[in-house]
Specification:
The chain is mostly helical and 182 residues long. The chain is built from eleven helices and no strands. Helix 1 packs across helix 3, helix 8 packs antiparallel against helix 9 and helix 10 runs antiparallel to helix 11. 37% of the residues are buried.
Amino acid sequence: MLLSKKRIVALFVFCVNAHVSFSQNADSLMHMLDLSNGRPELALDIINQALIDNPNSEELLSVRAEAHELLKYYDKAVQDYQRLTLLQPTDENLWYLLGRNQFLNGDFDDALKSLNRSTRLNSRFLPAFNTKTEVFLALGRYDAAMRVSDSTLNIGGTARSYFLQGEVNSRLGAWQRAQWAY
């Protein structure tokens, strides 16, 4: 059964008002895209319509930011995450998401500032440390990437952390260390 755009907007607004979370994971967003008959631009239009009635809805802003990121509209995702960090300035995950999208958009300096904010809020937040390592790799700052990567592994790295450690070591020509990390 296909729903009309007006009906989907009404459903979205109802769910937001009832505090039903659409932003828990990408599956919920993909469900929203399915409701829009596989047309991502329609899904974004629906979210934008719902935001008219709920302009400060963190749920809707989060879903729209996720949609922008999935569609690789990183500059628009950055705008949404900037708004969200104003609404929740102590949320380390939002600062991480902002930094990740700034990085994906090529804004390396801003990405490092946001990721640093995330890691100041939570000194054990591995996704932010891993992304900082990626930013330093992209900038060719391998010594800085190694420092962050080493810190990440001291915290208790993930498979991604070890992979990035291998990348840093291979770029530095430390082949045995790279092999160990991979």
